[in-house]
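Q: Could you fold this chain for me?
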Amino acid sequence: MSNSIRKWIFVLLVPALVVFILGSVSGGAGHGAALQSANIDLHDKQSLQNGAKYYVNYCMGCHSLKFSRYNRMAEDMGLNEEHGLTGDDVSTLLKENMIFTYDEDGKQDKVGSLMKNAYSPKAAAEAFGTSVPDLSLVGRSRGTDWIYSYLKGFYLDSSRPMGVNNTVFKDVGMPHVLWELQGWQEMEHAEGDGEHHGEPTLTLSKPGKMSPGEYDQVVRDLTNFLTYVSEPAQLSRKMYGVFTLLFLLLLFGVSWMLEKEYWKDIH
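A: Sure. Below is the predicted structure, expressed as structure tokens.
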């Protein structure tokens, strides 16, 4: 094999190997309990819309998304002219269902505003003992499976200030804000065989408004939404990556044939 062919193989394979390794590392960002697979689909517009709805109603009272804008979110989720909605329709939908904050003059925030909340860091520190984090990048810092497992991992723990703990985030300081949907879970330890302790499991002691299957879908939609928010460009970035790899593959073939043509008289 000639040196030039080896060089092209190196150029094509090394970046793919690096991406694979980084993906493996980021996928294991959880600690404690084994993470469950979220199995989300970023191109599922209905799932993203449901996730945004539940986030605004249950999470955004404390957790802002300061790097996202309402109108950009709506566009990416299919609330646009392609689906029969005018700009005024989208503005009305956002103002009536998503935007609950007001500026210094008492006017409702505009659709182009950043998704901040009215909960100041000082008030959060007084209530919870620490400032409440912005969740714009949690999908990248923690990972999709971590978010999904975390939202399903709350259980009753009377020793904690908020009355709950979490299988993924030990000694969590956040209350279980989705309790009315899921209900309350309790931690149970199965009996071991004398030498080994049984694996702890969560059991639903008091059902919520939703069945376990319905709640699981809500959590998956929320996870989908937070994963999208952490990097909106990934809706198109992966497609560009596929086209780039196909181009490089085509370029490799053309370059290989050119090399054979240039050097055929010497070899």
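A (continued): The chain has a mean pLDDT of 84.
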